[in-house]
Design goal:
This protein has one domain. The radius of gyration is 22 Å and the shape is globular. By secondary structure, the chain is α+β, with helices and mostly antiparallel strands. The chain contains 13 helices and 18 strands. It starts with a strand and ends with a strand.
Length: 432
């Protein structure tokens, strides 16, 4: 059996829509005009990268690392994260370029899909039959935009599976626009910090929080839905929940974003709204815990080796362990300045533990926790300033990359956090 080499189109530019409304102050210039949604061209690797960021740091527990080894958890966690994108948006199926282009085409009417699916075995064969069945005229789509759409195999709008997928969609696109619109290098999932008592907040805390390079705090409540009715009801709840937030780490100059993403067979669109704050809720979070949680896939206890391989990594980036996902080679890397600072951050965190050894956490009140966290934030304030200076300079590095972020046969996505994800555009296909 011969294997066929072909170009993997899963890294081409795809289109999603977004609208920003209701922002005031220094962020008022982000508001889009009237009710119009704007097209946003993104790389599939951008979705993978933000899905990886969304993985809980709890997978790297001491028990798991001891049982399975750090590299095994590293590869499992990243593969699991990327599988969310592949499953929800069908970005890994054969001939999916035509699949994207035909979104909304009569070809994809439900009876037709059902008929082809019943005669097919497996998703790959199904997509291949849909796109190249003999009775379908040969067509080219020179002027049709490749639009990201929901995987048609995700059946049922009200199910545990759909709610699980909607959660990931909401979080991924909140992270995407936090980076693209507000220049936030990373968002922290507050639920993760609560597990280690690294945050003090009320019962209505937002999903995500992060700082831009100007040390301005942002809070996001993320929603995802497959129907407009569910999206709008979720956005109403999100705005109400966010409005109760008054400050983060004693800073009342915060931006609130209710982020709702609708994903279906017609496309993907995200609405960002800034509700007017009305409440008195406060959040106190530990910056050291937050940043180390975000860079969880970097093993700071061991040296990373920068060596030449088939991946032409950007200059001054250090490679993380090699990855293979769904038959495709991937490589993650981190900028040297970010890595060096992370080592200092890790040393500071270890030298100044969040809670003293022997402290009875169960008997301490919120005021005591808040004071401990703010004291540690003060100790790390110089590291926060240095980190944000590095992030501001990384913008120039990202701008040097070509428009499609492609190095020859390699696609590349670099985040403001200094993490880079790459994959080959050439894969080997086993003929059906």
């Amino acid at each position: 059996m011969k294997w066929k080499l072909h170009r993997n189109r899963s890294h081409m530019s795809i289109v999603v829509d977004f609208k920003v409304a209701g922002y005031s102050g220094i962020f008022s210039n982000f508001n889009t005009e009237k009710n119009r949604y704007y097209q946003n061209h993104i790389n599939v690797l951008d979705l993978y990268r933000h899905s990886i960021a969304n993985t809980s740091s709890q997978i790297f527990t001491h028990t798991y690392v001891k049982k399975y080894g750090w590299k095994a958890i590293y590869r499992f966690g990243i593969a699991k994260s990327m599988s969310h994108v592949d499953n929800i948006f069908a970005v890994n199926y054969l001939n999916f370029h035509n699949f994207f282009c035909n979104a909304g085409h009569p070809l994809f009417s439900e009876p037709f899909l059902q008929g082809v699916f019943e005669q097919s075995v497996g998703a790959d064969i199904f997509l291949n039959n849909v796109c190249s069945a003999p009775h379908i005229p040969t067509r080219t789509f020179p002027n049709i935009i490749s639009r990201l759409i929901k995987n048609p195999f995700l059946l049922g709008d009200i199910s545990d599976t759909t709610r699980h997928n909607s959660y990931h969609v909401g979080m991924i696109f909140s992270r995407l626009y936090a980076e693209q619109i507000f220049s936030i290098p990373f968002l922290t999932h507050l639920h993760d910090l609560k597990k280690t008592h690294a945050v003090v907040c009320g019962n209505l805390e937002p999903d995500l929080a992060g700082q831009d390079p100007n040390l301005h705090w942002h809070a996001f409540e993320a929603k995802g839905a497959t129907s407009e009715s569910y999206l709008y009801s979720g956005m109403k709840k999100a705005k109400s929940q966010l409005a109760s937030l008054k400050s983060i780490n004693n800073d009342a100059n915060i931006t609130l974003s209710a982020s709702g993403t609708l994903y279906n067979e017609k496309g993907v669109r995200t609405l960002l709204r800034d509700p007017e704050p009305t409440g008195e809720t406060t959040i106190t979070l530990d910056w050291l815990s937050a940043i180390l949680s975000h860079y969880k896939y970097i093993n700071l206890d061991f040296d990373l080796f920068s060596k030449a391989d088939s991946f032409p990594s950007p200059h001054n980036f250090i490679n993380l362990p090699y990855l293979s996902f769904s038959g495709r080679p991937f490589r993650m890397s981190v900028h040297t300045k970010v890595l060096n600072l992370l080592r200092e951050i890790n040393k500071t965190s270890q030298a100044h533990p969040l809670y003293p050894e022997g402290m009875n956490i169960g008997k301490s009140d919120k005021a005591n926790f808040s004071e401990i966290i703010m004291n540690r934030n003060y100790l790390s304030s110089h590291l926060q300033i240095e980190y944000n200076e590095i992030i501001r300079n990384l913008r120039d590095i990202i701008n040097e990359i070509s428009g499609d972020r492609t190095f020859g046969n390699f696609s590349t996505s670099i985040g403001l956090d200094g993490l880079c994800l790459q994959s080959s555009n050439l894969i080997y296909e086993n003929p059906l």
